[in-house]
Design goal:
Helix content is 17%, strand content 29%. The protein has three helices and ten strands; from the N terminus they run αβββββββββαβα.
Length: 168
């Protein structure tokens, strides 16, 4: 019994158990800076790609914090207006990468494509992060479920933020 308790203490106290909130160097990591409307994809300890994005308008600010990707969908269905995935009028575009902001299940807030590419670079959404379809399709392939998404309004560089959160 004493040996079992000792093993339990070692497992619980180990830095590998549990893995914790932050990524480890090498894990995929997404950073969205809502003050610049830019997104960075970090992987293998370096910034692989950056993209211009649209974020939430003042009354519907994109939520800030560290979140987890919980849902991914191709040709996502738009629930608010009952629009089928793939339809030209679907504002979600070709991909949905949902994360658990504000206690949601990944179906309320997400990184998604758009049928309004002229909106990229603006603070205009209802709280989501909007990307050009071609770019969200690239990101979609790189981001597995469980990936951490950091959303901030910051003057810090992506490199500084990635180091601060353990992704670099």
């Amino acid at each position: 019994m004493k040996g079992f308790l000792m093993l339990l203490v070692v497992l619980v106290a180990s830095p590998l158990w549990p893995l914790g909130e932050n990524p480890t160097v090498g894990d995929p990591f997404v950073i969205v800076n809502i003050s610049t409307n830019q997104l960075a994809f970090v992987h293998d300890g370096e910034i692989k790609k950056t993209f211009a994005v649209a974020t939430g308008k003042e009354e519907d600010r994109t939520p800030e914090g560290l979140f987890t990707v919980t849902v991914k969908a191709t040709e996502p269905y738009y629930r608010k207006k009952n629009i089928e995935g793939g339809a030209v009028e679907n504002p979600l575009g070709s991909r949905w990468i949902g994360f658990d902001a504000r206690g949601s299940d990944g179906r309320t807030y997400g990184i998604h494509g758009t049928n309004q590419p002229q909106s990229i670079g603006q603070s205009i959404t209802a709280g989501c992060v909007r990307m050009a379809n071609e770019q969200v399709e690239i990101l979609y392939e790189e981001v597995p479920l469980g990936t951490k998404v950091l959303i901030v309004s910051s003057g810090d560089s992506f490199e500084t933020l990635a180091r601060l959160y353990g992704a670099m």
